[in-house]
Amino acid sequence: MENTKNTSLNTIVTDFILLGLPHPENLRILLFLIFFIIYILTQLGNLLILLTVWADPKLHARPMYILLGVLSFLDMWLSSVIVPRIILNFTPSSKAIPFGGCVAQLYAFHFLGSTQCFLYTLMAYDRFLAICRPLHYPMLMNGKLCAILVAGAWVAGSIHGSIQATLTFRLPYCGPNQVDYFFCDIPAVLRLACADTTVNELVTFVDIGVVAASCFMLILLSYANIVHAILKIRTADGRRRAFSTCGSHLTVVTVYYVPCVFIYLRPGSTSPLDGAVAVFYTVVTPLLNPLIYTLRNQEVKSALKRITAGRGAGSENK
């Protein structure tokens, strides 16, 4: 099963075998259908958010919803990097992934994931300005600044993904090529390296830990100020409306950070829960984000109703 190329010194791995998710053979078709449906719903749900933000003038003129559209775009790509490979593992086709493909998948996953991390921080900062600095908000967070901040998040995410991919694949891989995981991720790939991985594990822990912890602390600081400002609002309806604009973001931040901490900040872990948590983080979370924002965000629901009503009226006029 191992595909390697002989050299005078050792054997060099030219591809990896992704063992996928462990499952009973009689559930193969059912799991294939479940993940296929999740993938389709994820793409449609996030595409709906994107189209709603783009089509509604009240939304695409506001930084909060520009950031939401970027988040949906990231979720679509993150799901596409991981889920099709999971679906493929439930078919009789080969489970091999070329060495370069493994590098690309690891890079893309950490690039998109870290960009999301930075984006959640920008979304918290946007809510902080809107609630704590309402009079200065149009000047402090305009469309141009929002675009610059989003571009910065993409650049920072690309740098982070490059560091992780470079550190992981600079090591020699000369023996087993079976990755006991459903995609090429750092902990699973490092277990196959023909060298000491202590430094890699330490750098991964520090790098991801610093990125996640710094972003999380900035989010907490933003929301501490937000809560303080909301408690000063005299009317119950005003407090409720202010909290409602933050509820969706707090929910998706929790869904993002808990699995991330569980997987990456426990070096050397081989817990069987890692796979289940990773499935939630990579497969379920991109599906939940559009649901959370459409169910909890009144403005998005109102925009969807306006778009639907407009199409209905247009068809009647015809």
TrEMBL record:
What Pfam families is this protein classified in? 7tm_4
Listed PROSITE patterns: G_PROTEIN_RECEP_F1_2
Q: Where is the G-protein coupled receptors family 1 profile domain?
A: 45-293
For whether the record's keyword set contains Metal-binding, the answer is no
Give an example GO molecular function: G protein-coupled receptor activity
Q: Which Gene3D superfamilies match?
A: Rhodopsin 7-helix transmembrane proteins
Instruction: Please give the chief subcellular localization of this protein.
Output: membrane
Q: Which GO terms describe its cellular component?
A: plasma membrane
Task: Write out the entry's keywords from A to Z.
Answer: Cell membrane, G-protein coupled receptor, Membrane, Olfaction, Receptor, Sensory transduction, Transducer, Transmembrane, Transmembrane helix
Regions that span the bilayer: 29-53, 65-87, 107-125, 145-163, 208-231, 243-265, 277-295
Q: Where is it located?
A: Cell membrane
* Highest taxon in the source lineage: Eukaryota
| Protein's membrane topology | Multi-pass membrane protein
| PANTHER family cross-referenced by the UniProt entry | OLFACTORY RECEPTOR (PTHR26453)
Function field: Putative odorant or sperm cell receptor.
The family assignment reads: Belongs to the G-protein coupled receptor 1 family.
Can you name this protein? G-protein coupled receptors family 1 profile domain-containing protein
Which species does this protein come from?
Answer: Pipistrellus kuhlii
At the highest ranks, the source species' classification is: Eukaryota, Metazoa, Chordata, Craniata, Vertebrata
